[in-house]
Amino acid sequence: MDRMTWLRSMFIVVMVALGAMPASAQMRQVPASNEQLRLSFSPIVKQTAPAVVNIYTKRLVRTEVMPFFQDPFFRRFFGDGGFGIPRERVERSLGSGVIVDESGIIVTNNHVVGKGAEILVVLSDKREFEAKVLLADERTDLAVLKIDTNGAKLPAITFDDSDSLEVGDLVLAIGNPFGVGQTVTSGIVSALARTGVGISDYQFFIQTDAAINPGNSGGALVDMNGRLVGINTAIYSRSGGSIGIGFAIPANTVRTVVAAAHSGGKLVRPWLGVNMQDMTADIAESLGLPAPTGAVILDGHPESPLIKAGLRTGDVLLAIAGRPVDSPAAANYRFSTLDVGSRAEVTFLRDGKKMTAEVSVIAPPEQPARNRTTLQGRSPLSGLVVVNLSPAVAEELGLSRVGEGVVVTDLERGPAGQLGFRPGDVLLEINGRKIASVADAVAATRRSARVWQVVIDRGGQVISSTFGG
Questions:
Q1: Which residues make beta-bridge pairs with 384?
Q2: Which of the following CATH numbers is that of domain 274-360: 3.30.470.10, 1.10.1790.10, 2.30.42.10, 3.40.630.30?
Q3: Tens-digit pLDDT profile for residues 77-97
């Protein structure tokens, strides 16, 4: 070690001892010598790789050679045999997973296990186990598995606080790309809080340039402490291979899903209960903000913890529990990592002044009651199974709509099934009559009419349709 390197190291040690420089700064030095450049990730790999597993799934899919022979017209002439012979094929997929508890609890991506009838977990030492799904959550694209080890303890990775990551930090991605076997790649955190990626409902991803390829999904993203900071989930690619843009679900989200699996397999998410929009440059300028950051509250459910705490339309949400919020997606993420039953401080802007309020972290309430009903009568909506829209129903169906309404949950026999209605459609109006409850829908469909005009909300898009009576 040359004199300059020695002096630099001693300066850092002294500054840390005096409290003038945080210890984390020492962990984020640029290499200062050839000796430091020859350092290896091997100790971290040896610590973490045994806890990363390969996952193989398979399910039997039944298809028919000529599906159009299911049509009654063709069956009339050809009967049920012959051309419509069912064929079976085995659909397989592969991915990765991470052991997060030595008893055999494994977390992976929901899209890795999907609807796989059989799930096989292969450990790094080649041992194989059949796995069962404890919890599968499409909205976060996470699944928690359990394997029976007959009491044997497995190597597990400890969660780290993913909010402590900084852009530029070194990370390792461990998984099974293309099914070639366990592989380790290194890179840095390229960006944090990536939204608009379109992978899951909770858009708040760690971006990394550590190579992630098909088969890496569900694998570990670990930091230089050898702890889990994310679950590798997807890549941005035009060719199907890694081009240095990969995304991982933050460990703080993963931790909440694993905790739900431990407590019985039901995931209860905290509920904000407000509609928000991104802060634009124009809105920021009108509010006197130096930069367009935060989430603007548009409206809210009367039972929303934010509304009950005094927030209102036009307020700009800036932070939740001390963590900055720069978009509606960030607000949803920050709130989703809190524990139901706790309280949190929120910071918001009103009339150019920063204010704070303490809010309760609650589960979505089921108010009003569902009142599950099948619409009947001589209307084009006959056969729709509808319930009252409550925050709990909206959460279950992944709806962003806040407020009154009636939502379609299923379709039974009737004309509605032939007219393009889908589960998740929210009925807004029937023949000019506003539909705020199941009772309204029942009353509206009991009336006779030659022409029916129905307005629905489908995924945030308002659709108006006209049908004959």
A1: 411
A2: 2.30.42.10
A3: 444 544 455 566 656 778 899
Separation of alpha carbons 131 and 211, rounded Å: 28
Topology of the domain comprising 373-468: Pdz3 Domain (2.30.42)
Q: What is the dihedral of CA 6, 11, 12, 15, to 10 degrees?
A: 160
Higher pLDDT, 58 or 166: 166
220 neighbors 231 (Cβ within 8 angstroms) = yes
Give the model's pLDDT for residue 13.
46
List of residues 6+ apart from 303 with CB closer than 8 A: 273, 365, 367, 391
Cβ contacts of 62-71, under 8 Å, gap ≥ 24: 62/86, 62/87, 62/88, 63/87, 63/88, 63/89
Could you tell me the pLDDT band of residue 169, with boundaries at 50, 70 and 90? very high
Residues with catalytic function: 111, 141, 217
> Quick one: which of 454, 463, 392, 456 has its CA closest to 424?
456
Is there a shared CATH topology between the 274-360 domain and the 373-468 domain?
yes
Q: Is the pLDDT of residue 73 over 70?
A: no
Q: Could you give the CA distance from residue 377 to residue 359 in angstroms, rounded to a whole number? A: 46
Q: What is the pLDDT of residues 307-327, one digit of tens each?
A: 999 999 999 999 999 988 888
Band the pLDDT of 9: cuts 50, 70, 90: low
Residue 329, both tokens: 């997606």
Fold of domain 40-266: Thrombin, subunit H (2.40.10)
**In the prediction, which pLDDT does 389 show?**
92
Domain definitions of the chain by residue range? 40-266, 274-360, 373-468
Q: Quick one: tokens of 57?
A: 């799934």
